[in-house]
Give the backbone structure.
Amino acid sequence: MNLLNIVNEIEGVEQGIHDRLNPRRMAIKGMFNFGSKVALAAMPFALGSFFNKAYAQAPGSVKDILNFALTLEYLEAEFYSKGVAANGLIPAGPALGAMTTIRDHENQHVDFLKTALGADAVSKPEFDFTAGGAFGDVFSNYDTFLALAQVFEDTGVRAYKGQAGGLISNKDVLTAALNIHSVEARHASHLRQMRRARGGAASELKPWITGANDTGIGAAVDAIYVGEDNKTQAGLDITQLQGVGGKLSADAATESFDEPLSAEAVLAIVGPFIV
Amino acid sequence: MINPKKEMLNRRNFLRYAGAGAAVTALVMTGCKDDELPVPKPDEEGVYFGSGDIAILNYAYALEQLEAAFYTKVAEAPYSGISDLEMQYLTDIRDHEITHREFFKAAIGDSAIEGLEFDFSSVNFGSRESVLATAKAFEDLGVSAYNGAGRLIEDVAYLALAGKIVSVEARHAALIRDLISNGSFADSTVIDGNGLDTSRSPGEVLDIASMYIKTPVNVKDLPNY
């Protein structure tokens, strides 16, 4: 991927972006602040519809989309950096190795997007990974950390997927976004395996998403998986198609397609983690 | 389902073909009913994928056929020593690939290519090592194919569909890699120094896949770069 091409494509399409971007930055910042002000600790993930009403506008320009992506990557990069650095949190060996691999990718994504955006890159927000106290033991309880890691990755996959259409006229930017998108999916797959290995509520968890909220975490993360139980694609009911020894199952229908999320829904999900 | 705009695209293509010779005349005559013209598939040139987005969809359909055929064989005769969990995962993946295959077949409709035949003689289906190595190659190839085809898609709805499928292929790829060597889900053989996954052009993908595809294919109008 040639970064220079991406920068040129952004510059070419986004004439006069600076004027439009600043109000947009303020709007996004306001959205995050709003999220923390209303004390979401009790139901940190359940505010999707509320935010949809308050901010119906999606990121419009390529730069908006990349700054939206950058904000998510900042969040993931800092999350894993703190987790890997936390003494005794992640078991040494394969677990620490995997988290270090993922941390490095998220930091690379941050650097890549910052370089692509240049002076237009938004600055890193301040994060609160306890979400106002809802996850107070995030950096001392490995299972809490793993659960948040999984839902951040599954959210990231949905977030990039939701923005692909907005990049269709910028081929190099689109390709870069797709190449990040599938890395987030690889992360999610591995983290789901790690959680399954821990047993308990995650003992049946698969690398792919079955139905809607399959995490075993509870209703607090319903908004992250809303719509993943969709069984209709391009107007076709997948469960009416032929599988092995009968029609395709509902599980196969939902597992075989990951669903996008709007920017508003994603921002509502991550809002409680941004101070 | 395929939108009318794309049918027009097929029609133009069809009309270009219609002048090719007497052998096609019969096809023209039979193809005009109900105002729906089939994509011509001149036998001498192999299975014709069409052009534009239709060709991209048929390209994805062909790759899903390949994966589905592979995992069907894996599930029918599992390698020796397979664990219950591996069997469950590989059966799930088989069903996902069949889902993708059947979805494309139904969605592309009259413009869909026929079922292709495959050659898996290079795979030792009794060997875990051989099966998982092939699965890894197919899944990584699939991810790179969708990532690389995105820029060629014209219709935003098809791009969205490709996006819904590619992340599932990436979940497969990561799992298969972890079954081979835990922790290799996104190693430096597929992810570059910017943290980006691999993308390949259709030409690059078909070069790699061709050793498994027995049926001659005609991809001369498949968008490429």
User: Anything to note?
Assistant: The beta strands of chain A are 232-233, 236-237, 242-243, 246-247. Chain A has one domain: 3-273. The longest helix of chain A spans residues 171-198. Chain A has ten helices and four strands.
